[in-house]
TrEMBL record, chains A, B:
This is D-lactate dehydrogenase (cytochrome). The keyword GTP-binding does not apply. It is found in: Mitochondrion. The lineage of its organism: Eukaryota, Fungi, Dikarya, Ascomycota, Saccharomycotina. It is an enzyme of class 1 (oxidoreductase). Coiled coil: none annotated. Signal peptide: none annotated. Its main location: mitochondrion. It comes from Pichia inconspicua. Keywords: FAD, Flavoprotein, Mitochondrion, Oxidoreductase, Transit peptide. Residues 88-265 form the FAD-binding PCMH-type domain. Belongs to the FAD-binding oxidoreductase/transferase type 4 family. Catalyzes the stereospecific oxidation of D-lactate to pyruvate. GO terms for biological process: lactate catabolic process. The keyword Oxidoreductase applies.
Length: 522, 522
């Protein structure tokens, strides 16, 4: 069997037990593959990269737009909302704007052959540093590929390009009485949503990106174009390539076309707002909704602090009770069906000491009630800027735990943040056991916020949960991922990565380490 | 860049452009990896295998049961229902019965190190030749690992071993008011169900195995044990290893523990039977159910021929109209909710010229109505034996197409089979666009049946569908898979396979070719 080769001995490598020397090695050589099923970090020579200059010239020759204006470089390096920000010098060498799958293929082929790293970008709304250029790399911005290619309304699917924004898609589908399930933060595009396997308020009912993509057109590292599947709503034919690419954060391939599952928009839908004296009662109600088998389209929990911030923001017409609150969407194929469900929700709410129970009778009321959820993030930021510090920062992070641990996890996190002296609000997808802590902090309090997040994540793991329900790993949670799934599972991911991207050009330093020394974590 | 090495030149291989000679090569050497993202069939030296004798002795030394009785060899080589049967000599060298993950790990490590192929087995109910020992191999039977490890009823999940049968699981969960979604043919076990990504009558409502597995414990080819995830109902942390393993048909790893998502059993459920004058009217009703957004727990279509066979079998108490028939499950959290939905179903049925509309008012009636669906396969076989030939064979195959093409696809298939002179029945999961043709044939008509299946599959592809909605590829549909997803996608699957199973020991010759010459297809 093969021996593992310790990196750093270029020109003197063990090859199946025979010593070779003087080879002009490419970054990942034969001897870099162990003969086993995984690829531990120290078992291969990490990739090395070349300056992007030559590749950029070649890309320009192909007629593909390349930009390196200060503004474009800045916009593709960072966002205010991101948990992780670039270090000095961490900006792309240039931004490339392809307009077709074929152009993406040509760009990747050039990068692969010349060992130039490349970072994909669509909406730029991800939170864990996914599009930071940790190496001297090119950013490939797919936002010009923003067309709906084909709507198949009788098949309940749609073929779109990666630069389509989910909000634009929602508007487009409204006219057909159709909807797409995942609803992440504003500005997100389908390409990035597939890359991070995001979800949103509808996930307990309609699933995450994993359950809502039928097929993907993916350009692999060497420029090979693969379509993962045709358009059946289910298939048992061959490996689930679609499922492998979704959530791989641009490290396995670049998505250039996506067929999405659609749903019929509920003919009737109402919003219910219920306030509880405390989290335990809210949780009791949620458990009962689930155990009763009620089909609810969303069960969002906004904690008392969040309701206070929403009131303070002045963004909503009415004021809310500043209590732990559930916002629920009830849908159905008839008004009677919706009424029946609302009644069941009401009975359960009262059985769990609800202090307020409101439901929307009109579209306007529906909008008003749901508005608390929509303005949650902005209200928290506004509160921080107004009452704490105009330069306040926000750390928006998420974990998910088995549903019976949801409230305990959330409550302990809330208490811990409060005791630390920092201010935060919490919003959760109760049907999934997934919640977000929105922690406000001044720059000098970053270390404290970091520690609080680490404890929130570790507690989620102690409860058999995950370090991210919908934001992903990026550069921010790499160490946590090892804690979550163990070294073997991460070594397996790394093996898959280098099997399809042998030069390690695709979005380096995201999801897991690819280099034991030259790594960029938080 | 690396050059591709043509196989068959052992001892004289190109290694990064440098000629080496005299190496004692292991089956997959460095030079077998191209530097690209895929692994085309002719770009590497195919695996070679050793006689299992030595490994079997070592396994016995470990205290793991090994059997090679005629009866066990036969039982693990074939089943009457399978589409593909073993050729002479295609039987396991022996059957190994591990009782723990650690034992599976030890067995695989031995097989990996000694290049001995190994075929996983649980219920033995798969239909596409998944457990045929195409090479001189060991079969690893996981049916002794048949325990429920932990039920987390408040989290709606359960941890089980691969040998647990889904019907036993159903009985177990009944006591808790819980259920598991997928319901394939009788006798299937969770391990094999994960391997083939099966589903059943509930899939349009509850999803396939892909959507119903939270995590897997998998033993990789070299014996490495990986747990793909903890127990959150959703996660965006790292690659979707769970999703990659499900449907990989035992070619990437062997599953030894599975955490399944559970659902609350509908408090109230009824069965509706509707007969239509022809398929088009049945299809019209299905389209309207979907477009209305009705949530139905199953929409099964049994064609007129199937109803005739069910009547003929005498297995059911009442006789059915011998017309194209929909069998529908309507569930809800209250009796009123179920009644409301049944009324909507009724209105749509009548608007589509239904000739019969029955719904079950009692548990007994529910059982009786659904019985037509339960006895479908057996009735078809019984009919064939009684009226055609006591030695009749059955070819049970499935495809799935976009839902708007469901009826056209099914109708053309039915007509083509009829015109061929063979007898068949059809049962479909209408909500998914997935259907099964059960083709009866005498051994001398096998070539005709093969051709009919090929045409059914090709037509499904012409309609942008898949060559299998729930049975998988096995050895039977390898060529069709290439037609479905294209050579690049299959070459990517092959690259993933050899990245984690470099010696090619895991279930050889299934899903895609691993050897251009020494292959076993149908």
């Amino acid at each position: 069997m093969w021996r593992r080769v310790i990196s750093g001995k270029v020109g003197k490598k063990l090859c199946n037990g025979i010593l070779l020397s003087g080879l002009a090695v490419s970054p990942l050589l034969f001897s870099d593959y162990s003969s086993g099923s995984t690829l531990p970090l120290n078992s291969y020579k990490p990739p090395t990269y070349n300056d992007p200059g030559f590749v950029l010239k070649e890309i320009k020759k192909l007629g593909i737009e390349v930009s390196a204006t200060t503004e474009e470089l800045a916009r593709h390096s960072d966002s205010w909302f991101s948990t992780d920000h670039p270090l000095p010098g961490e900006e792309p060498a240039a931004i490339v704007f392809p307009t077709s799958t074929e152009e993406v293929s040509k760009v990747l082929k050039l990068c692969h052959e010349n060992q130039v790293p490349i970072v994909p970008f669509t909406g730029g709304t991800s939170l864990e540093g996914h599009f930071i250029n940790t190496k001297k790399s090119i950013t490939i911005d797919l936002s010009r590929m923003d067309q709906v290619i084909e709507l198949h309304k009788d098949d309940l699917d749609i073929v779109v390009q990666p630069g389509v924004g989910w909000e634009d898609l929602r508007t487009y589908l409204d006219d057909y009485g159709l909807m797409f399930g995942p609803d992440p933060g504003p500005g997100a595009c389908i390409g990035g949503m597939a890359a991070t396997s995001c979800s949103g308020t509808n996930a307990a009912r309609y699933g995450t990106m994993k359950e809502n993509v039928i097929n993907l057109t993916v350009v692999l590292a060497d420029g090979t174009i693969v379509k993962t599947r045709r358009r059946p709503r289910k298939s048992a034919a061959g490996y689930n390539l679609t499922g492998l690419i979704i959530g791989s954060e641009g490290t396995l391939g670049i998505v250039t076309e996506i067929t999405l599952k659609l749903h019929v928009k509920p003919k009737w839908e109402s919003v219910v707002l219920i306030s509880f004296p405390n989290l335990k009662h809210a949780a009791g109600a949620v458990t009962q909704f689930i155990q009763t088998g009620l089909i609810l389209n969303a069960i969002e929990l906004l904690d008392s602090q969040m309701m206070k911030f929403v009131n303070d923001s002045g963004e909503t017409e009415s004021k809310y009770e500043e209590l732990d609150t559930l916002l629920i969407k009830v849908g159905g194929s008839s008004n009677e069906a919706v009424d029946l469900t609302i009644n069941e929700v009401k009975n359960i709410a009262h059985g769990n000491n609800a202090t307020t129970f409101k439901f929307a009778a009109t579209e306007e009321e529906k909008f008003q009630l749901w508005n608390a959820r929509k303005t949650a993030l902005w209200s928290t930021i506004a509160y921080g800027k107004k009452h704490i510090d105009p330069n306040i920062q926000i750390w928006s992070t998420d974990v998910a735990v088995p549903i019976s641990s949801f409230v305990e996890s959330l409550e302990k996190t809330r208490l811990e943040i409060k005791e630390s002296g920092l201010t935060s609000s919490i919003v959760g997808h109760a049907g999934d056991g997934n919640y977000h802590a929105l922690i406000l902090f001044k720059e000098e309090e970053r270390a404290l916020a970091t520690e609080l997040v680490a404890r929130m994540v570790e507690r989620a793991l102690d409860m058999d949960g995950t370090v991210s329900g919908e934001h992903g790993i990026g550069i921010g949670k790499k160490e946590f991922l090892v804690n979550e799934v163990g070294q073997n599972a991460v070594d397996l991911m790394r093996r898959l990565k280098f099997a399809v991207d042998p030069n390690g050009i695709l979005n380096p330093d995201k999801v897991f380490k690819i280099d034991p020394i030259n790594d960029r974590s938080v």
